[in-house]
Amino acid sequence: MTKDFTLKVDILGYWGAFPQPGGATSGVLITTSEGKFLIDLGSGVLAKYFEHGNLSEQFQGVLLSHLHYDHMGDIGCLCYAINHANRVGTRSSKMIVYAPNSPAIMWKAIQYPYSDTRVLEDGMELEIAGAKVTVKKVNHTIECYAFRIERNGRSVVFYTDSSYDESHIDFIKGADLLICEATVSLGTRHSTGRGHMSDIEAGMTAAAAGVGKLCLYHLPSDGDIPFMRIRAGSKYDGPIVTPDMVSEFIL
Ligand SMILES: [Zn+2]
Ligand SMILES: [Zn+2]
After folding, report:
1. Is CATH 3.40.50.300 the classification given to domain 8-250?
2. How far is the CA of 31 from the centre of ligand 1 (A)?
3. 141-163, pLDDT tens digit by residue?
4. Domain-by-domain residue ranges, the chain?
5. Which tens digit of pLDDT belongs to each residue from 66-76?
6. Which positions ≥6 away from 104 have C-beta within 8 Å?
């Protein structure tokens, strides 16, 4: 890696539940001068990752927010690819996978000989690729975590899937970038809304936490995305983007 930046954030997929043509569900690549890791690995994300990198030792692992398929559907194929990288000598180590250990059947399904699978817990701190990651349990239909990634005073918070909750604001406070779900909007039928937030609630969260920029994420397949930005902007005065317009952030 030649260029030194504090944190580079690439949004590889952003659809909730299932991908749209040419796209992918949840997946974010974090790059530092010390390596790379993925947050979530939903349907279509692995192919997008290969546009940005390979599986040499620079690739350190994956944090899975929760074990719904739109957040981990590609993990099995990544395990095959890690196996291949070890076999052909482009890699000589396992990848680290952090995930909740429930639902038990899904936890069991992500165990693999070339993965070092570690259990996420509320409040834990870990370090990966030279970045500090703080883990926060959020409100979803199954066990689910948000991540705050910090390095040299720069920060990004990854916050999906969760219902709106003012008690989460302290965790998000002052982040340079908030990647926040907006699964529900006026007129959408994509989701029942249970365990999720609307575009307006994403705006309220960004405003209350005083973040530098809001990126709406985990978008509904039937959403009017420009309209969703306007709705979020009714609550938050700062810059609002969606990954269809900006997918790379240098922090
Ligand atoms: Zn989801
Ligand atoms: Zn989910």
Report:
1. no
2. 23
3. 999 999 999 999 999 999 999 99
4. 8-250
5. 999 999 999 99
6. none
